[in-house]
Design a protein that fits this description.
Helix content is 70%, strand content 0%. It has 84 residues and is mainly alpha-helical. The termini are close together.
Length: 84
């Protein structure tokens, strides 16, 4: 089970990554990939099974790279694992 602090950490990290992401970031920070942001964002969710984390990973990537993505849905989903 995920504790609330883990859920909040993942949400905070995803928000930070989304806020600091821009399409040309890899040009300004050689070697940068969105994968490193995703790995960092998902660290607090390591207690969840891989089958749960993998769809969250895709959703989180969408939230980071697409300003129009459904952020509230991701937040509700992550918090739902802490409430379960």
């Amino acid at each position: 089970m995920l504790d609330k602090s883990g859920a909040e950490a993942a949400i905070y990290r995803a928000a930070y990554a989304a806020f600091t992401y821009y399409p040309e970031k890899h040009l300004d920070e050689p070697g940068y990939t969105v994968i490193e942001d995703l790995d960092w964002c998902l660290e607090p969710l390591a207690v969840l099974p891989e089958a749960v984390r993998e769809p969250l990973r895709g959703w989180m990537q969408e939230v980071i790279t697409n300003p129009a993505a459904d952020r509230q849905g991701l937040i509700r989903a992550i918090r739902g694992f802490a409430d379960a």
